[in-house]
Amino acid sequence: MKPNHRSELNAGLEASELECLRGFQSLFEGLSFAVSPGEALQVTGANGSGKTSLLRILCGLGLAESGEVRWNGVPIARAGAEYRAVLGYLGHRPALKGELTPRENLRAHTTLHGKAADDTRILSVLESFGIGRRHDRPCRTLSAGQQQRTALARIVLGDTPLWILDEPATALDDGGIACLEAAMDDRLARGGVIVFTSHQSLEGIRSLGQLALPGNRG
Amino acid sequence: MLVLGLYLGLVVAPPDYQMGDSYRIIFLHVPSAWLSMSSYLIMAVSAGIGLVWHLKVADLAARAIAPLGATFTFCALLTGSLWGKPTWGTYWVWDARLTSELVLLFLFFGYMALSAAIEDRRTAARASAVLALIGLINLPIIHFSVEWWNTLHQGSTVTRLGRPTMDTQMLIPLLIMFVAFNFYFAAVVLNRLRGELLVQERRTRWVRELARG
Amino acid sequence: MAEHTTAEQVPANRESGPALPLRTGMWSLLRRDLSIALRERGSLAQPVLFFIVVVTLFPLSVAPDPVLLRSAGPGIIWVAALLATMLALDSMFRPDFDDGTLEQIALSPHPLSMLVLAKAVAHWLVSSVPLIVVSPLLGMLMQLPGDAISILVLALFLGTPALSLVGAVGVGLTVGIRRNGMLLSLLVLPLYVPALIFGSGAVQASLVSLDPAPHLLLLAAFSLFSLAVCPLAAALAVRISLN
Description:
The complex is a heterotrimer. Chain B contains six helices and no strands.
């Protein structure tokens, strides 16, 4: 797999020749792919195959052993804050403060990311994820599924063109998964790029690609 | 060379008219003290190089230097206090130099503890590099503040180490010891570095073979 | 979903960078940290109680001799303040690290060093300011005269920001490590030496009716220097720990 030299022109997210080491082992190497606007990529692989590591590298949180990630042709290491401004990342922890209510969490998060926090919009997004009636309880009183819904509401509220979601369907019931699929599909319809991992197949999403990580090689 | 220096220093050089034979420990003390500081400097600089330019050899060098630097610092403190007993009448004086040297030892320990505590080698190298650099910035401040504190706190219980003149018969062994210690330092660091490099080299070959097979 | 999202441009044409100024982001983070601290009132009081208990142990362990206490008092109070600040340090990043919020902070388009600074300020307000408030009481317990007490308060006020700032670097480095309490103190305490020396030196100087100003100025200089260096180093440390 050669790095794609026409990449400078490509819109969307692109990874070339990524290698990731975990201690003694190489989790993956020579990994290249591109996701164009309006496309979603589902990363699959066994436990420990490096899905989360890959997503963290795509975010710029993790450091690849070699290779680079580009957004609209610009390496993310160079883009820095500009890349972080277009990125919405859902880690496998919901990133909610248990002491604060969903509404306060979302408001703090929105202003932290440099956007005006519009209360009615926060409430309507929470409503669409079925948290409307619980928006004034501390997050630690919510169930795992409700916390996950709140975390997803945070991504939707961020309204960024790139979503990187680590197991977004965790702890969600059927209704929650339907909400998630609707949100993702809407994002794609408006030219968004989504990279996610999931053990479930999310069927209600247009133009879904698959990327299988090789998994543990001993 | 080490042997020659030791011989000249411990046997040939004449006893000091004031301190008698006890001064001979200086042949160990001065080079260790010098190396303790220069090795911290080298460690911090190479750790910084590793941090900024992602040069793995520099990370490994810093990692190789740390225990050695700590050893030299400890030697300097030990020989210093052994020398201090007959000379000042006590093993330990809260002198500015001694205190700074002690803080230096803590910094070495902190560096080693941090790089040992983090599992991932690369993360460990980067994290401890930040610590080494912060320590490097802080060390002059600490030294300065300790010196200040000392002069304000008490009169001078301690006269300076250096005597106005030094007999050549003492100076030559000191210089020889100095060079010998530096060589020893370089040899040990290179040896340790070779070990560290081998570990990493073997790992990549091993992984490659595994990937092919 | 569609009714909540207004018409958007395609990603390629989107304007990048935060729409609101950095100030708002820092302010929001500071307010969030403070409101969390206020909802956990029990842990809010802990540094102060620890501070008081440690200081009261000294007269019990040495001797309640007023002369002795007066000469040792400034040092004891400073050491206790150092320890109390240090024990509270871990809460600066640990909860955020555990629930994933720290990742989100690191992914904010704002410079991480400034956000770390906001968190250090929050930490200082929550854990150091109460210490400063109760320090006159402890000064009286240590038989310090009135003007020495006011110097003590001033010295703590000037010196404790440096403790939070230097501490931020230490916590940033160790937040990824489990059971890091000992390690954190090993890393941070040697770096606290200048603050300790100048801080207690100022009070000592005023006790023997010397001018405490040089000490206080040096203490302020140390804090300002930490203000310049530590946020950058702490931001780097946090990014490394998140890797």
